[in-house]
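Before the break, one more example. Copy the sequence into your notebook; we will annotate it together after we see the structure.
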Amino acid sequence: MPAFAGSAAEPPLADSYHALVRRYGGGDDDGALDEGAVPVAECELPMIDVGCLTSAGGGSEAERATCVAAIARAAEEWGFFQVRNHGVAPGLLDAMRREQARLFRLPFEAKATAGLLNDSYRWGTPTATSPQQLSWSEAFHVPLAGVSGNGGRSCNFGDLTTLRDVTREVAAAMSKLAGTLARVLAEALLGRPAGDRFPEGCDEATCFLRLNRYPPCPVSRPDGGAFGLVPHTDSDFLTVLCQDHVGGLQLMKGARWVAVKPIPGALIVNIGDLFQAWSNNRYKSVEHKVITNAMTERYSIAYFLCPSYDSPIGTCEEPSPYRTFTFGEYRSKVQEDVKRTGKKIGLPNFLV
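Here is what the structure looks like once it is written out:
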């Protein structure tokens, strides 16, 4: 356990958990780990070398076609895949992890009230009505408009000037990768290039970078560990994730949870709700979660490819199983459902 665990840097997650237990009941209130937890099988996601898409020279037409087919197949069968030779330098990701650790070691009050990174700090789950809905984590969910400094809305990085520079580099590299992957996924369904503007309405002013930390967790659930992040699907087109060596990411494959084995140097990509809708359900936005570690903190970085709120999501081909809706409508409905029912309903709300 890190030396600063339990210090003034830590969010009051245990207080929040025990308050929910007292108020609503349920959960393991003794803090003991559950020895009878159901084991979860570990899996290796499809690994795809995307160097022919990201390198300056590229590859042959045959290599590119094979790569595009593999990406589309993984999006259909898993909703998740891993990429290597992705163009995001390993040294840059290492620097991001170091800066991330420095950021989260700041006192909790500084993180929560000092307005850092566009006042984007989050911890726990304010809407939780039971211990099962609590996410044991903290994060900065940063609009890229602030990271880039464009439009006069530059982020407040405080004294963390190195974090500012590294975050900008990571955001630019992940943005380039996400755009490339989104276009080839669209191409696989359209049978032609999707164009440089796909997905419509997505640019550095509309996307997000999320810096996550999952502190060590002394409490558990009956299925073996507290939620670092509760089960959910992503409400974007595409997510690019860099996770550390600790593990904890699990996804639904078939009717069971499987744990994703961390692979050094690889990035994880998953389909979001908007791409599932655009693809007429060919690509799958799969439910996933993070399980905490009892002794070790976990860090991850996630890039979310999102359009502007007024962007219509559209479809690859008519007829679509979904009515026309904008990203703003989708987000509003998700927030409304979470507030009303405690959970996200998502795409079923927009079926024709």
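The first strand starts at residue 41 and ends at 43. The domain at 13-307 is CATH 2.60.120.330 (Jelly Rolls). Try to locate both features in your own notes.
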